Amino acid sequence: MDEALSISYINTILSIFKNILKFAKQYGYLTTSIPIFQLPKQRKTPSDIFSLSEWACLNNYLLTQNDNFSFGIFLCMYTGIRIGELCGLRWEDFDSKSGQLMIKRTVYRIKNMAYTSDNSLPKTIVSIASPKTPSSIREMPLPAFLCRKMQQYSSDPLHYILTVTTKCMEPRIVQKKYKNILKKCEIRYLNFHSLRHSFASIGISKGFNCKTLSEILGHSSVNITLNTYVHSSIEQRRQCMELLVMK
């Protein structure tokens, strides 16, 4: 293969293979014991989040813009949706009466299984599908100010929010345009997923309970929210330590 497989991809392959062996064992196709697989471990790296000043700067810049892409980034700031979910949003997913946004599709690039070195087909293709997990399919209530902005940009129900056409924008284009916005704002570059990290951390600091935040983010458990996306600032830690003072 030309490219090394990621650890998460290897783990997925091994998990599927293990389930196949279990099925074979259950129905008598496999007479030997199932081997024990040692799954490669992923190294956890700290997730970067925007500072409050950076968050405010990005927020203020986006409010001065009138294009749908800038609005899409603004939407991510206040919903924590993933980049593929943003790309897959159509106006039919927004219910102006209830003020709710339905997350039910995602856009991502996958390997083109028809590609070979002998043909001219692309190595990867864009796929539009349902989110990978049932918990990612969710209804999200929007704050009133965001509903008003949604109504300002509203278009044909079958149009994608970012493109205002029936053709979606793919994630790598979103990444490029998003990077240019940060550059214009003179904000350090953090990857697109940092918008989601920051949303979660700010939500906790504003009083979101973890269960509610987990459902908004589309996680299958509260632990994922706590361990992966929620970060306390040094100021929050200081405030907690001050609670120990005897009065």
Structure explained in plain terms:
GO terms for molecular function: DNA binding. Residues 45-242 form the Tyr recombinase domain. The protein is mainly alpha-helical and 247 residues long. It has two domains: 1-43, no CATH class; 52-242, Orthogonal Bundle (hpI Integrase, Chain A). Helices cover 45% and strands 9% of the residues. The protein has ten helices and five strands; from the N terminus they run ααααβββββαααααα. It has helices spanning 7-26, 52-63, 68-77, 83-88, 144-153, 171-184, 193-205, 210-217, 222-229, 234-242; strands at residues 94-95, 100-103, 106-111, 124-129, 138-141. Helix 8 packs across helix 9. The model has no long low-confidence stretch (mean pLDDT 87).
Tell me the name of the CATH homologous superfamily of the largest domain: Intergrase catalytic core
Q: Bin the helical content.
A: 40-55%
Biggest β-sheet: count, sense, barrel? 3 strands, antiparallel
Name the CATH class of the largest domain. Mainly Alpha
Number of beta-strand segments: 5
Instruction: Give Rg in angstroms.
Output: 22 Å
Q: What low-confidence regions span 5 or more consecutive residues with pLDDT below 50?
A: none
Spell out the helices and strands N to C. HHHHEEEEEHHHHHH
Remind me, CATH topology of the largest domain? hpI Integrase, Chain A
Topology of this protein?
Elements: H1 7-26, H2 52-63, H3 68-77, H4 83-88, E1 94-95, E2 100-103, E3 106-111, E4 124-129, E5 138-141, H5 144-153, H6 171-184, H7 193-205, H8 210-217, H9 222-229, H10 234-242
Antiparallel strand pairs: 1-2, 2-5, 3-4
Helix pairs in contact: 8-9
